[in-house]
């Protein structure tokens, strides 16, 4: 049956739902939604712009993974989605809940709860504000859509880089469901099930749950080979669908998920001299073979995550209008403890205890006119509260670890043993303590290096909408807008507890040189200028001031609490963004479009121990970087207010907004047995919020401008009913147009780390029918590739080209579907057992060491599934 544009339009306007989109390169033609039985099975119905449309008509670069593809490919969670969506990259790093989503090279916020993600994740229309609340198992999924570029006119909560929208299945009025059990290597056990059916003639329910348990990929050698990088998580979700009349549909969802795991597998890419000498000198062990999956830590890490909430969606048809309301409340608790020096020596561990509560309300109205003009108008409210208590401990080996480094080379005799060097270093520290008036053995002799408490309250609201004008059949002009008002109030209470951290060595020398006559800034400033200069010249000269080399032992230094009389602990942002687009359906098979869109993401707050005052609020005095004299500090707001703490440095409390701009032209085409989508884009983000791990904290800064030009191509070829080929490619030409003020120096003109030039995804699926029996064998093989790329922008002291990554992953599955509902299958992920580095970071308190995370090894198993 030929599908005319008029017929399609009547289908498209039959309802409004969550904004969802599709890509034939990831969705099989037979995976078509069945909302309208009269639609040809090769037409994929999606709901872009919060309205139903065919894939061919969707004038946006989008990707979709169908629930059936997720099931066949054994995609368990969002981490695995990147193997079928070339524009998407997902990474899990320090903990089970530290996940970053990146689209077209843009994304951040994985390990700092003060940073809003540039890629927004929505599950059934509800925004998941932190990636830790968006990592639940994918179960009862209808489809997962990835929208590239800013989506300010479709989603009330702005996302400057793109959106991942996960749509789950609605309850059905016919009783049914499925149960599944799988077992694989590493003793992986996966159980999942779902049941749905009617309660009354206008109320239906569904209940589903998952359970995952798996041994770790790695082993902690010095702790009796205890597991690390294991899986231990479960989830449950309940749905009610209530339709009191033919015009009203109510969907209520409640869900709960829990993670209790030991994460993550870490190793050393480069072992520096401090690791080899200081750690080895106190009897510590450390990994040297990156892909051995051997770990050496003094305690098994843990990550506990609880994520739960409920939502209610009401869709009400009012003749020519439809009204939609989505109300949601969510709670997230996330706690972990990890030995962050990643050695068997007891040096330091990090603990975090985080809590997030979020309330959201979306309300929108859409028209369904027969005339040339239709519109959508919406409002969105967001209220979130975040608290975090965290600390760094001082382990029993920290003092000796520091003493090894404190021993001056001139005092260490040739052939001295590590124990002798530690003894010499301890004697030096004892002398320093005596000279500075500190208790004996107090340097690195307490319980905590730092203790901190962070709080963030974020309230925002927005108005958004679009207007479509179709002067002639097939030609549609769209204009959209979004106005967002965002307010954040934050508090930072930070204590650097080691006594050495609160002593400025430049000032201590001046106090000693003046016989104790100068102990304050006021006393120093009262000296004649010539005396000041003479004292500073001697105090900043390492040959004269022998305390200066001990600055390497001041691992964390004090910073004023926020808010204070200078720093109000507030950000206030508002922005108007808009969309202009023209789309034309050339024929029943081909649609083309061109668009210009802007996007926005509000300021993010640096909720980490690296939070430091802005350079406009504080000017350090002369001396080593980050250790400048307080006595000689120039006039600045914090100094004038008496808030200048010893060894205070500048950085960021927050990063300003991101502002996105994208030009895009595209084509959607679909013929019998062949489909192709192509999008060419030029996307820029001004003020991109760059986030960098610095060793014991996180640096946050705005890149002046980051841009990416490229294209996204996806095709589907179906030569027969039994055989489907897909191919998708993304090409990215990325650059820092302006990034002169980052923590790594001027990166302007360079390609940002971690953004591959090419990303390819391809698959082949074959379905063998055993006559007319209804039994069939489905075989699937897929391949994903990312071209060689620098993993990071760089690490201080190293060339960025030293750390590179190339990805080539092959996955496969085979499922025998019997006509009685029983299915038996086998699967493998990373079939060829490829090894690569996910990311790298500087060794914690170990200058010269670079650590990193390896990818997961090959996994495989078998499953049994029963559908009823």
UniProtKB/TrEMBL annotation:
Keywords: Cell outer membrane, Ion transport, Iron, Iron transport, Membrane, Receptor, Signal, TonB box, Transmembrane, Transmembrane beta strand, Transport. It is found in: Cell outer membrane. Coiled coil: none annotated. The keyword Transport applies. It is a multi-pass membrane protein. Residues 289-831 form the TonB-dependent receptor-like beta-barrel domain. Residues 55-163 form the TonB-dependent receptor plug domain. Residues 1-29 form the signal peptide. It comes from the Bacteria. Residues 618-646 are annotated as: Disordered. The keyword Transport applies. It holds the Pfam family Plug. Residues 632-646 have a biased composition (Polar residues). InterPro entries: Beta-barrel_TonB, Beta-barrel_TonB_sf, Plug_dom, TonB-dep_rcpt-like. Belongs to the TonB-dependent receptor family. This is TonB-dependent receptor. It comes from Blastomonas fulva.
């Amino acid at each position: 049956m030929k599908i005319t544009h008029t017929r399609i339009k009547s289908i498209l306007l039959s309802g409004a739902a969550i904004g969802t989109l599709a890509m034939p390169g990831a969705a099989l033609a037979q995976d078509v939604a069945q909302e309208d039985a009269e639609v040809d099975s090769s037409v994929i119905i999606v709901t872009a712009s919060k309205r139903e449309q065919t894939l061919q008509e969707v004038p946006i670069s989008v990707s979709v993974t169908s629930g059936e593809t997720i099931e066949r490919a054994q995609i368990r969670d969002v981490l695995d989605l990147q193997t079928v969506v070339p524009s998407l990259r997902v990474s899990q790093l320090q903990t089970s809940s530290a996940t970053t989503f990146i689209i077209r090279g843009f994304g951040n916020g994985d390990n700092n709860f003060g940073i809003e993600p540039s890629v927004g994740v929505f599950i059934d229309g509800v925004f998941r504000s932190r990636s830790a609340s968006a990592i639940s198992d994918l179960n009862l999924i209808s489809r997962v859509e990835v929208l590239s570029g800013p989506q300010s006119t479709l989603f009330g909560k702005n996302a400057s880089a793109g959106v991942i929208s996960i749509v789950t299945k609605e309850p059905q009025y016919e009783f049914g469901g499925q149960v599944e059990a799988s077992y694989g290597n590493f003793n992986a056990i996966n159980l999942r099930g779902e049941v749905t059916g009617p309660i009354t003639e206008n109320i239906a329910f569904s209940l589903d749950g998952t359970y995952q348990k798996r041994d770790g990929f790695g082993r902690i050698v010095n702790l009796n080979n205890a597991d690390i990088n294991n899986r231990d998580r479960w989830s449950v979700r309940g749905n009610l669908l209530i339709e009191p009349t033919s015009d009203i549909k109510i969907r209520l969802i409640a869900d709960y998920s829990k993670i209790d795991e030991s994460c993550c597998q870490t190793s050393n890419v480069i072992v520096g001299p401090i690791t080899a000498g200081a750690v080895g000198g106190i009897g510590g062990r450390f990994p040297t073979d990156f892909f051995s999956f051997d770990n050496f830590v003094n305690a098994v890490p843990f990550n506990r995550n609880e994520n739960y909430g409920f939502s209610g969606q009401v869709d009400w048809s009012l003749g020519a209008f439809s009204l939609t309301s989505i109300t949601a409340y969510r709670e997230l608790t996330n706690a972990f403890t990890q030995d962050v020096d990643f050695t068997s020596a007891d040096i330091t561990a990090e603990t975090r205890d985080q809590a997030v509560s979020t309330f959201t309300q979306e309300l929108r109205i859409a028209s369904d006119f027969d005339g040339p003009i239709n519109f959508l108008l919406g409002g969105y409210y967001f209220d979130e509260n975040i608290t975090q208590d965290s600390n760094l401990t001082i382990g029993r080996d920290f003092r000796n670890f520091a003493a090894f480094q404190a021993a001056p080379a001139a005092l260490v005799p040739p052939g001295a043993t590590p124990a002798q060097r530690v003894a010499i270093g301890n004697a030096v520290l004892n002398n320093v303590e005596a000279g500075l008036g500190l208790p004996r053995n107090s340097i690195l002799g307490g319980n905590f290096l730092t203790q901190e408490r962070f709080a963030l309250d974020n309230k925002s609201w927005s108005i958004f909408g679009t207007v479509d004008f179709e002067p002639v059949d097939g030609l549609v002009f769209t204009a959209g807008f979004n106005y967002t008002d965002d307010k954040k109030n934050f508090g930072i209470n930070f204590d650097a507890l080691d006594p050495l951290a609160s002593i400025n060595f430049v000032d201590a020398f001046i106090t000693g040189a003046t016989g104790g006559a100068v102990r304050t800034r006021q006393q120093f400033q009262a000296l004649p200028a010539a005396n000041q200069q003479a004292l500073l010249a001697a105090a900043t000269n390492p040959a004269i001031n022998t305390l200066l080399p001990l600055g390497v032992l001041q691992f964390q230094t004090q910073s004023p609490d926020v808010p204070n009389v200078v720093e109000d602990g507030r950000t206030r942002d508002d922005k108007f963004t808009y969309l202009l687009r023209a789309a034309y359906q050339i024929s029943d098979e081909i649609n083309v479009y061109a668009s210009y869109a802007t996007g926005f993401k509000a300021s993010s707050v640096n909720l980490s121990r690296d939070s430091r005052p802005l350079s406009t609020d504080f000017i350090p005095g002369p001396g080593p970087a980050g250790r400048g004299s307080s006595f000689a500090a120039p006039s600045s707001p914090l100094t004038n207010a008496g808030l200048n703490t010893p060894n205070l440095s500048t950085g960021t409390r927050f990063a300003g907004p991101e502002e996105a701009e994208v030009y895009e032209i595209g084509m959607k085409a679909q013929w019998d047995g062949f489909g192709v989508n192509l999008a060419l884009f030029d996307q820029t983000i001004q003020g991109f919020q760059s986030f960098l791990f610095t060793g014991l904290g996180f640096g946050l800064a705005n890149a002046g401008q980051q841009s990416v030009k490229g294209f996204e191509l996806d095709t589907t070829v179906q030569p027969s009913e039994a055989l489907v080929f897909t191919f998708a490619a993304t090409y990215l030409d990325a650059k820092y147009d302006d990034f002169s003020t980052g923590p790594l120096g001027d990166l302007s003109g360079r390609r940002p780390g971690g953004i591959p030039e090419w990303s390819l995804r391809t698959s082949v699926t074959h379905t063998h029918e055993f006559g007319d029996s209804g039994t069939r064998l489905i075989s699937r093989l897929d391949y994903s590739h990312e071209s060689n790329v620098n993993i990071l922008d760089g690490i201080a002291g190293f060339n960025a080209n030293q750390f590179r990554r190339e990805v080539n992953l092959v996955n496969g599955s085979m499922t025998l579907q019997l006509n009685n509902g029983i299915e038996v299958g086998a699967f493998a992920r990373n079939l060829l057992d490829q090894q690569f580095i996910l990311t790298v970071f500087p060794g914690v308190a170990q200058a010269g060491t670079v650590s990193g995370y390896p990818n997961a090894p090959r996994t495989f198993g078998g499953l049994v599934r029963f559908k009823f």
